[in-house]
Structure formats: structure tokens, C-alpha cells
Amino acid sequence: MALVLSSPCGGPSDEEEEMAVFESTAAEHGGLGRPGLPEISVISPGLNTPMAEPKRGKKTRSFDRAVPEKVKVFLRIRPLTDTERDRGEEQGCVAVQDEETLLLKAPKESQNMKTAERGITQSIHKFRFSRIFGSETTQQQFYESTMKEMVKDVLQGENRLLYTYGVTNSGKTYTIQGSGREAGLLPRALSSMFRKLQGRLYVAMNLKPCMYQDVRHLEPNEIRAEEIRRNSLLREDECTTSRRGGTTTIWDSGVGGLSSTSYTTTRLEDTDSVCLEPDSLSHSGGGDLEEGVQFSIWVSFYEIYNEFLYDLLDASPSLQPRKRVTLRLSDDKQGNPYVKDLSWIQVRSAEEAWRVLKAGRRNQSFASTHLNQNSSRSHSIFSVRVLHVHPEQNDGQAMHISELTVCDLAGSERCKEQRSGERMKEATNINTSLLTLGRCIAALRHNQNNKSRPPQVVPFRDSKLTRVLQGFFCGRGTSSMVVNINLCASIYDETLQALKFSAIATQLVHGPSTKTRVAYILSLLREPTANGNESTAMEVDEEEDSDGEEEDGDITMLNTEALLQAIDVLKREVQRQREEKDSLEATVREQVVSEMMEVINGMQDGFSETLEAERALMEERYEDKISNLQKHLKNFYSQELKERDEEIEALSAILEKQTKSEVVPFTAPQPEDSAGLRRSQRLSTQSQHGRLRADLDECRKELFTKTQELTKLKTQLEFPGSSGTLTGTADRKLEEGKRNLRQLRMDLQRLGVDLQSGERACCRNTGGERLRHALKAADETIARQDQILMDLQNSLTLVKAEMRRKAESVALMQSLRHQLPPPGPVASPCKKRGCGAAAAGGDCENRPPHKRAFFTSLFPARTPTFKHNTRAAQEANLTPYSRILRCRQHSPPPSPVLTPRSHRGKV
Ligand SMILES: Nc1ncnc2c1ncn2[C@@H]1O[C@H](COP(=O)(O)OP(=O)(O)OP(=O)(O)O)[C@@H](O)[C@H]1O
Fold this sequence. Notes:
Blueprint: E1 2-4, H1 14-22, E2 40-42, E3 72-78, H2 82-86, E4 94-96, E5 101-105, H3 111-117, E6 124-128, E7 131-133, H4 139-146, H5 148-155, E8 159-166, H6 172-176, E9 178-179, E10 182-183, H7 185-196, E11 207-210, E12 214-217, H8 220-242, E13 249-255, E14 258-262, E15 294-305, E16 308-311, E17 326-331, E18 337-340, E19 345-346, H9 350-363, E20 366-367, E21 375-376, E22 379-389, E23 400-408, H10 421-449, H11 464-473, E24 478-486, H12 492-505, H13 514-526, H14 536-546, H15 560-667, H16 678-718, H17 726-761, H18 766-819, H19 829-841, H20 849-858, H21 871-877, H22 880-889
Parallel strand pairs: 1-2, 2-6, 3-7, 3-24, 8-23, 8-24
Antiparallel strand pairs: 4-5, 5-6, 9-10, 11-12, 13-14, 15-16, 15-19, 15-22, 16-17, 17-18, 20-21, 22-23
Helix pairs in contact: 1-12, 7-9, 8-9, 10-11, 10-12, 13-15, 15-16, 15-17, 15-18, 15-19, 15-22, 16-18, 17-18
Adenosine-5'-triphosphate binds at residues 78-79, 166, 168-174, 179, 372, 374-376, 410-411, 484.
């Protein structure tokens, strides 16, 4: 099953193009292919769209074509030689399906078959050509079908190029020049041309082609020099022919001191005449030629060897080695490339042209390779320039020039096959220039198929070959390609590559010719002018149109007035197109700007969102940190105060108890009235006193212990900053809070810097201003939080003060202890009584006044009258310590000093 890879419109897609050019895409025929791979790759375009053929029977000019004509690509298959047959080269890998379709099947040993077996490529390939010529095709048949028409076109003023392409030993030189009695395309074309020009030749040498396509008037002395040169070249050919016997000419290539040997083996018939079959030159007459015009024919012959240009008609060869002069490529004023100082020889007959060709061939670089005994090691280019001379005008400036160029490209080959260094170098250069030609053709085709996309640069300048042929691909004329292949299975892979190369060329269409531009100008002149008048040129054309002729492709037939008018029209047209382009550019710019603005706005929105999210995240994080800190501090202080309270209460209870136990024995003395009981009472009193004393001693011991404890506590409380207990920890927490605050401030500063840079990136958009406000607000929040921490610090100071007061209370208690009777003899009953009464009467008088106030401040809620006060008054009267205590007593606790985020504004 054959699958057509070409796109429906005839031009393959880029992917297909890549596939077609660089990779074989066939799978094993009926075997190991990848599931998605077709069995046969069709590497040729336009199978569904027939190639645009010129209308038969009617002269077709490039500017007459409605549909651009495709480049013609012919395939010629060389027959196998007996030696090749004996070697088993015939394996049926090339099959001609029909006149236009070729099938290539990979032989077993080929690389293609190996890759196909791995499922990477296919093993069968199908190609389409303008026409395929089998091995049985004669030179005459080939000429008739390919070049005959080109010769006609050239004589009618067109430019034509024919070049051969193929692997080495495939028959390119045979096709162009011929062999033995089998004259090739070039001698046949020359012969045909001169037969057509019989009686129309312009033999004077005063007009000579030069540069790209110019003509120069020669002075008499220059004419003489030209004559001498021409005659010497023709005479040299005669001499060489007469002393023939297999000449070997040695040339110094002049490149880096390297010598290249040019083995000249004449393969053309060594006769003075072109050997052609009588019927091949059937005189078709000069009916197609322009009336009143004479033709001056000039030829040039040069080669591109190792990327250097050598003039093959420069001078007669000699047996002595000599330096070959390299030619340079130059550009004319319009940038058209031409070979500078190239020899142009005027020829007046087919025979002279033939001799010049033979003379040039002797200078050409041939060498024996493993594949071809007489292989061309260079690209040779033979050009015929036809000057269309109007004898009565004889004006070189207005003269028309047409050209036929025939290029015999050196064969592509595998460098690894070349043993010798020189052959290797040649092969590399040949392959490089052929590769460049392929890239140029691919780029041209890409540009033709993708008109809406920006055009690719065609790498004409990358090699000398493409540079000299550039004009034929860019509207100077049209080109045709002859692909030569042979049937040898051993070079199947190279043949496949050559055919893939040609497959791209088959997709090319001829570029618009310069004449098309002329036709365009004339069409503009036909259009009504702005003021409603019709141009003179239009009248001229109408007259000619009425004759039914289509000879109006030449702008030179217009008179001066018409040309001036044409210039005006063209100026207006240029102006119009310029305005059109300006408005188009403005529209495009507008679209681009609006699209860019959209993108920028999108970016800005995204950036603002990100910033906002980050800001919120950081706020949240730091609020959490602050609230954690608050909670922690609160818990810590609450715990500490609770412990102290308990200790103080315990101490108070102990003191009270001790006081009571000491006072009670003296507070209830009973008067003794009865004398009989005094002794027993005295005894019992003594024993009671003893017991009391023991108790008192015990109490004193206990008091002493408690005093020590109190002293210790006092010591701790006397140095609040350095003791490292309560206040030290509080200080540390406070420091930690400050540190966190500093960190928060630094983060916010960093956020501000980010915001500023973000603002700059967003083209100073108003979003930045908003974010700056947000940052300012955050700063204010920080300041407020600073204030709150200060408050906290103040509260802590107050707590410390309270603690100090408590310490003083403890000191007072100690002093109270000192007021107690020292251990020893029992105190007097009255004294004890007084003390006992004082103790029984209440302890208010025995305590310092501030101690009472301290406990009152500690437990304000226990005072019954307190409940009647207003809450505000309560809040106002509370000390920080009592506030904290109150928080502890009431559930749930009051809101922390630092409010959460939702109430932040109110703080
Ligand atoms: N159509 C043909 N009929 C008979 N013989 C042919 C044909 N084509 C080529 N040959 C012979 O094949 C041999 C190689 O041909 P030729 O030298 O033209 O190949 P080439 O492609 O020019 O090689 P290279 O690129 O190495 O110069 C020559 O001996 C030639 O006579």
C-alpha cells in the first residue's frame, strides 16, 4: 500500500519535508515495519496535483503563466555495464512503474535495508519526476525531450539552465557531453542553435558580453586581441587533435602549493565536426526568431574545483606545469553575481563551438576514482550567451541578451571510499557544494510554499556553485534538472539520497521572471490614470493587442513619452503601496501594543496578587507570633504569682498559728482563791510551765527555720534584675519579644523593597502605590505593637514593684518575729496576758498599715462593697498585679492586651 506523504494542496508540510529530505521513511516491505509506518514512502510531491505543463502548440512565456510552472526534473537511468552485471550489481532495486513514477527497493546489503529491518525506515520508496528515461533511451531521444525546447526559448530571449545531478559514475558527463559518437545534450544544443541561426548570425566582434548580463562595445584594438585569442584557441585544438595519443596535462592548482593532476582523456569524438545523426538536426528554421534581429553567439567554459573557479578557455594547455589563475566572483551594481575576467569566445558555427568545448575539456579536472575511471572532480559550467543585435540601432545598452547554461555537476560520493588525500578533499568539497545547492532548493521551496510566514534566507552565498547559479533561481530564467542514476545495488544508498534531493527540486516552481515584472508594469499602464486619461503606452499596447500578438513583454518598445508616463504611474504605485504598507504597519503595531498591554496587565495583576498574598501571610504569621508571646508571658506571670501567693499564704498561716500557740498559755490565767489547793496547784503550774517551755522552744525552732526561708526569699526578691528567677525570666521574655519585633520590622522592610522593585517592573502602575499604602499601614501596626510591648514592659515593672512591696512585707514579718519573747524563762503572766489580749482583740494594730493594703489589693473582690462599684471604677483602681489575678479568677479570661488581627484597628 502506498501512502502519499504530500499534503493535499501539493506542497508537503515542513515535517514531511524533513522526513523526505533527511530521513528514509520506509519500513521493511511487508515485514518488520513499525505499526504506524507505511510500507512504501512516497518521497515526491504533487501526486494529486498534476504538474503545470506549458500549453502545447502555443508559445508560453513566463509572464503569461497564470499558474507558476513547476521546475522540470528528468530522471535518466544508465544501463549496467557487463562488468557490473558480472559483479552481481543487478538486483532489481530500481523499477520504473510508468513514465513518471519510479520505485526503489532496498537491496539486502544496503544500509537502508538494515535500518528498515530495525523498523526505523522503509525499504521501498516511490518518486515522481517530470519524465523518466530508461537505460534504453538514446541521446537523441533524450535531447528531443529535454533540451530542444530550451534552445528555442533561449533564441527567443529567455534564460535557461540545465544541470545534472547524481552519484559518481551515473552518467552525468555522458548526458551533457556524450561519448564517442554519442554526442550529449550540449553539442546537440550548439548544433541545433547554429542551424536555427543560419543567415541570422552577427559575426562582427564589436559587441561582447560582460559582467552579469551586460554588453560592451569593443574598440578596434580590443577586437583584434579577441580575434587572436579566439584563433589561437581554435588552432590549439587543431594541434592537440593532430598530436593526440592520450595526453596527460599537468597543472599546478596554485592552491597552497598543492598540485592537482588533470588526466585528460578525450572521450568526445576526435574529429572536427560534431557527430550527430542526420535526422537529429532537422532544420526547424528560424521562423520563431525575432524579425530584423541578428544573433551574436559567445561561449564561456569554467569549472569550480575545490571551491576555486578556473577558466577552462583561458589559454592553450602546455606540457609544462604552470600556475592556474583563479577567477573571482563579483557583483554588479544591482548585486547580481558574475565571474570576473571570464573568457568569452565568439563562435560562428557549431563546429567552432564544438572545438572550444573540446579545448575547455582538456583543461578540466578529471581523475580516476574507485567508481569511475574518468571521474569529473569539479563542477563544469558551459554558457552560451546570445546577443540579440538590431544592426540598425547597434546600441549595446538597449540590447537584449539571453543565455543557455549547462552545468555538469561533479558526482556526490562517499568520502570514506576515497583513499587518497587529494581525492578525499575533492569529494568533501563536491559534497559540501552539493549540500548547499540542496539547502538552497529546500529554502526556495519553503518560501514558495509558506508565503504567509517570514521567508527563509536562501544560502546562495554559502558556495561558489550556488552563487553562480543564483540568477536562474531568482527570476533571471528557469532551470531544469537531470537526475542520473545507475542500477548498481552497491551504491543504492547514495542513489536514494540523490533521489531524495531531487524530490525537493520537483516541488519548486519557477520564480517570477524579470519579464513578469515588465508585464506587470505594462498592466499598470493599461489601467486608467487618476485623471481619467489613458496612457500612451496603453494605446501602443492596444494597437499591438489588436494584431493578436503577445510580444508585449519587452518594455524597450515603449517610446520616451510612454516611458515617462510609466515612471509616473510607477511612482504613484510605489506611493500607494508605501501608504498601504504604512497603514498595515500601523495596524500591526497597534495590535502588537494592545497585546503587549494585555500581557503586561496580566503580569501586573498576578504580581499584585502574589504580593498581597505574601503580605497577608506575613501579617498572619507575625500576629500569631505576638499572640503566642503574649499568652506565654501571661501564663508565666500567672503561674509565678500563684506560687508566691501560696507561699505567702502558707507563711501567714504558720505565723498566725505560732503567734496563737505562744499567746494562749498566758491569756487564760485562773485566780487561786483556795489556800489548800495552792501547793498542788503550784506543782501543777510548774509542770505546766515546763510543758509550755518545751512547746515554746519547739515554736522558736520552727520560727527560726521559717525565718531562714524568709531571708532566702527576701534575698531573691532584693535583686530583681540579677536573681534570674521571676524577673529575670520576665526580662528574657521581654527581650525575646523585642527581638521578634525587630525581625518583623526587618521582614516588612524587605517586603517594602520587593514592593518597590515590583512597582518598577509593573511600569509604575498604581498597584504599587496601593501596596505602599499597605506597607505604611503595616508600619503603623508595628508602631502600635511597639507601644503595646512598652505597656507590657510597664506592667512588668509594676509587677516588680509589687513584688518588692511583698518583700518588704516579709521583712516586716521578720521584725515581728524579733518582737516575740526570746527563748528562756517564762514571761510574766500580765505581759503574756497583755500580749494574749492584744492577739485575741485582733491583729490590725500589730501589722504595718501597708501590709493590709497589699492584701486588700491582692484580693479586692472579697470586699463586699467592691461589688457595688462600677466596672470602670474597678478597672481604674486595679493594679496590674490585681488585674492579672482577676483575670485568673474569672473565666473566661479577659482579652489580651494585644488584640487579634480583627481588632487590630482598635488597638
Ligand atoms: N546512458 C548511457 N549509456 C551508455 N553508457 C553510459 C550511459 N551513461 C553513462 N554511460 C557510461 O558510464 C560511464 C560513467 O559515466 P560518466 O562519466 O558520464 O559518469 P559521471 O556521472 O559523469 O561520473 P563522475 O561524476 O564521476 O564524473 C561512462 O563510461 C559512460 O560512457
